[in-house]
Design a protein that fits this description.
Elements: H1 2-5, H2 10-17, H3 21-42, E1 49-58, E2 75-82, E3 87-92, H4 97-107, E4 113-117, H5 126-129, E5 133-136, E6 145-146, E7 149-150, H6 152-166, H7 176-191, H8 196-205
Helix pairs in contact: 2-3, 3-7, 6-7
Length: 212
């Protein structure tokens, strides 16, 4: 568990402890199940403060002539980050306003919230919804910050996720949510400077799995 919390790969852990890779994989799978279950039960809600929101695209190789939002097979993810606070990620079927706005409304309080996004059209209705302070940066014009108006925090988290997930050399689509929630957990507990090992031990006591 300590080596998992240190974010060592299953291969490295297998070599260090001189135990079979299959055994390590089973335990790593169990720890990820624990974290994923905890994330579903926690149901993070952001109450006030500066919130950065961004939609991003993970996985799948590029298709020639199609990039970014047009890339085929990409996993679509909505990320919300409260500055100097926690992050929340969620896989979504698409990045339309009909999909993103209800999630934002559910997770971000209308009271005292200042929302920062890019100019993706799905965010157009936030002011009408009641978020009176909605600031935007125009990435298409090479604008990445306007004073304190930026989404550098959530973009930094996205980069961290992509770097971390790349070391697994491919993740099956059906498991992507579990790995993303692990990134969320690692980021949040690192930010809060809480001991990941003690926290995971506590979570494991309240979770059962067959380890199959």
């Amino acid at each position: 568990m300590k080596l998992f919390c240190e974010d060592l790969t299953a291969s490295t852990t297998s070599n260090l402890l001189n135990i079979e890779r299959k055994t390590v994989n089973r335990w790593y799978k169990y720890f990820r199940e624990v974290i994923y279950n905890h994330s579903k039960e926690t149901d993070l809600e952001i109450r006030g403060g500066v919130v950065e929101i961004d939609e991003s695209y993970f996985g799948a190789r590029r298709v020639r002539g199609k990039r970014g939002r047009g890339a085929s097979g990409k996993i679509k993810v909505l990320g919300l980050l409260k500055r100097e606070g926690e992050v929340y990620v969620r896989i979504v079927p698409d990045c339309s306003a009909e999909t993103l706005i209800p999630i934002i409304r559910d997770k971000v309080s209308l009271e005292n919230s200042k929302i920062n996004t890019d100019y993706w059209k799905s965010y157009d209705g936030l002011v009408d919804l009641g978020y009176k302070k909605h600031y935007r940066v125009i990435h298409s014009n090479n604008e990445f910050a306007r004073g304190k108006q930026h989404i550098n925090g959530i973009e930094s988290f996205r980069s961290y996720c992509k770097r971390r997930l790349a070391k697994f050399n491919g993740i099956k689509k059906e498991y992507y949510d579990i790995y993303l929630k692990e990134c969320e957990w690692r980021f949040n507990y690192g930010l809060l400077k809480q001991n990941k090992y003690k926290q995971l031990m506590k979570l494991c006591k309240n979770f059962t799995s067959s380890l199959d």
